Amino acid sequence: MKDLFSVAGKVAVVTGGSRGIGEMIAAGYLANGAKVYITSRKAEACDATAKRLSEQFGGECISLPADMSNLAGIEAFAAALNAQEDHLDILVNNAGVAWGAPLEEFPEVGWDKVMDTNVKGVFFLTQKLLPLLEKNADSDNPSHVVNVGSIDGIKTPVFDNFSYGPSKAAVHHLTRVLAAHLIKRSIIVNGIAPGPFPTYMLSTGVGAGGDTENTDWDAVGKRNPRGRVGTAEDIAGLAIFLSSRACGFTVGDVITCDGGTVVS
Length: 264
Description:
Rossmann fold; 7 strands; alpha/beta
């Protein structure tokens, strides 16, 4: 019972781990004894975050930059990971993008880029990493996949980002579909639907241009039922639950982490 939430000694991959929610989840795993690989499209940012997190938490955070919006990038990442690991315990599909534009002006590229990264990337990365996820998995010690959706896939988004909400709704349903198929292979799949967190994406949405350090997060948080935006502990705690023994019988669920936004 005392090790219900342990991820110590586990090997984890967090896509989009160089900043935002992905970095928060990676930090949580590292602080609790996991070995973590992070990805992002920008190699310099990915390398810098991996170095900083390793130093901050005394764990092993490894940068493997990759583009999760296309099959070539996904296959290159899978090959790089296979060259370093013979198994994978935890996969967090967090990499995501958004595109904002008025309805009448919303471009095809804004639709395709979001759907490719947010939905196609989740499916094909999971597919390519199945051999590693299955390697050490059994009924008593399953592997875990955590897909990061959004409350914008549950309720109508407040911003004019017309492909983002539908992409996240697709992630939520893909989570259920993958869960049904993979539970028989000792891989447990669940999802998280985050609300407001102090991220580049939300900073851009509230008009601060992605400057997370100078965004007025207190003002943003006052509009939330909890009275604040989310913290690293909030999202990392849920991710740790969803990838530990505590989650041995929770399958195919999508759990909100939003301070009460959806229910309110």
